[in-house]
Amino acid sequence: MTTLLAPNACQTMADLRAQIDAIDVELIDLLATRSRYIDRAVDLKKIEGLPARTTDRVAEVLDKVSSTASEQGLDPNLARKLWAELIEWSIQREIRDLGE
Fold first, then answer.
1. Checking phi first, is residue 73 left (phi over 0); if not, alpha (psi -120 to 50) or beta?
2. What global pTM score does this model have?
3. Over 80: is that where the pLDDT of 1 sits?
4. Is the dihedral of CA 62, 65, 70, 75 positive or negative?
């Protein structure tokens, strides 16, 4: 994890943009890691005979994300929309890999 300047420590837009760029790299790294867990989910769903889409689990994840975002001062609606897109992409990938 990169050591970031606090937002109010950025004295120029160049400073601020460098911090945002560093955060973007970390976000991509985390998303890539999450994607590897989705790869494993496909394997386990095959073994356990589970479908790609589990509606209750999707609702659970979205509720947790919304709650966590709210606790962290992030708009929970934004977090919910971002994760809904991420989850749907993951499910479509699982559907393809599971042959559903």
1. left
2. 0.84
3. no
4. negative
